[in-house]
Design a protein that fits this description.
Layout: H1 9-19, H2 22-61, H3 68-84, H4 88-104, H5 109-119
Amino acid sequence: MSLPEPSWLEEAMLKYKRKLNHVRLRPVFSAQVSTTVDKTKQAQAQNYHIKEKVKAILDEAGMLSDFHPQYLAYGYALDKSQRTMEFMVDRIREHQILRAKWETRGLDPDLLDKIDAVLIFAL
């Protein structure tokens, strides 16, 4: 025993198929490839620089590489908040939130201070 199909289902399926027609979508996506590649290059370069800065601090402190991802995640979050928030008060508040969040997860406050000193450019 099956339930009856709603009256709008057939029309919705046709609309869905038209919207996702690969022949129509190929030029749309092809036009976006160069922009996407450029943005990806910039983001990867930025992430690489953050990783190298944080890694240098952690290596100097003798931190095991098992714990690097947590500190890298803090560094990425801090960098994102610095770049995306327009107002200083928002950056300061977000920094306080990030510090509280990552310190409660067990990260060393002294290492976080060193990461802050290297990564914060807009406080």
